[in-house]
Amino acid sequence: MSRLRAGVLLAAGLALAALVLFFAVRGGETGKAAGPPTGASPVAALRVPVTQVLRKTVPVYLDYVGTTDAIRTVTLQAQVTGYLLKAAVPDGAEVSKGELLYQIDPRSYQAALDQAIAQSQKDAAALEYAQANRHRNYSLSKTGDVSIDALQQATSTEDQYRAALAADHAAIETAQLNLGYTEIRAPFAGRLSLAQVHEGALITNAGTMVNTLVQLDPIYATFNPPDTDLPEIEKYQAKGPIPADVIVGTGATARTYQGKLTFLDNSVGRSTGTITTRATMENPDHSLLPGQFVRVRLHITDQPDTLLVPQAAVGSSQLGKYLFVVGKDNKIEQRYVTLGANYGTLVAVDKGVTDGQRVATGNLLQLGPGMQVNPVEAASSPEAGPGQRHG
Asked: Which pLDDT tens digit goes with each residue over 309-335?
């Protein structure tokens, strides 16, 4: 019985050993089949658009926010009393210098002028008689036919009428002025505002405001640079007029007006630390109106040998701004840089790269230092646009 049990155990052991060997052989074949096929190619390098660092001469600008102001603004006032007869132009009209704007009823002032003229004619006739009388008395006084007293009276009468005639001339001039004041004319070319007095209204007091007239061409752009910019502005202003671009709006609708820096105040504001400054520009189509917010860009000088890269190539991290430079063997190098002003789609680089180096302009989120890439040259290099310094 013991031999039979021993035989059974031996047979079971042999079967188990055969089963373990079978699975071991199958497992080895399976592992060999799961490996990569012989001669397979490595993963392709990432295609990355690149462009070269440019070296150019670029303009240097100082940028400010300002408002437009009229060069001249005048309140049109009545200088005489009377009914407003008519408005010769509508509200908001563009008017030329000397153009009739408002007419006050002139009849009473015309009558006063006529009366002054008539009085002068009367006194002129009296003076003529007085002159003849004095001359006659003077001749008769030599023969003793007229006393010296009579001659003196005749002389006095002549002088009185001469003075009266001078007063008449002054009265005529005053009446002519008052008659002229019944016409309110434009002192300069500009645009009217809303009328404060309308036809038929009685203007009872001289000095009544009728309307406001502003000159629109040329026009000011007023802005306030900080006193820290004052030495730089004065330095370049001493060399000649500083060109100024005045920009209205943003994006595709922005419009630029060319002018020059024409005014620098003589003191700095104690509370603001800024100085009032003005640029003057032409506004022939009157598209600029006083009170508009504008951006003023002073072109103070040109800076040669400035390095430029696309703004799209600049990355940012907690350590600062950086660029991915494609270096030797097309491997990525991360360069932290110091940036200058923006020029359209480009930005100046003050430190961190040199001209001719290639920088990545796309797929930045997939790049890292030491990574090998397949660089592809950009189709065209962007041009440097107007500069705008970083604030």
From this structure: 999 999 998 889 999 999 888 898 999
The single residue listed with the structure tokens 């180096």 is 357
Strands 358-360 and 46-52: antiparallel
**139: confidence class by pLDDT, cuts 50, 70, 90:** confident
Beta-carbon neighbour count of residue 45 at 10 Å?
12
Which pair of structure tokens corresponds to residue 20?
Answer: 């373990």
Which residues have a Cβ under 8 Å from the Cβ of 82 and sit 6 or more positions away? 104, 105, 106, 108, 109, 182, 202, 203
Domain boundaries, the chain: 1-34, 48-57+304-388, 62-71+215-302, 106-181
Residue with tokens 């007063």: 167
Pairing of strands 338-344, 332-336: unpaired
Instruction: Render 103-126 in DSSP notation, one character per residue.
Output: EE--HHHHHHHHHHHHHHHHHHHH
pTM for the model stands at 0.66
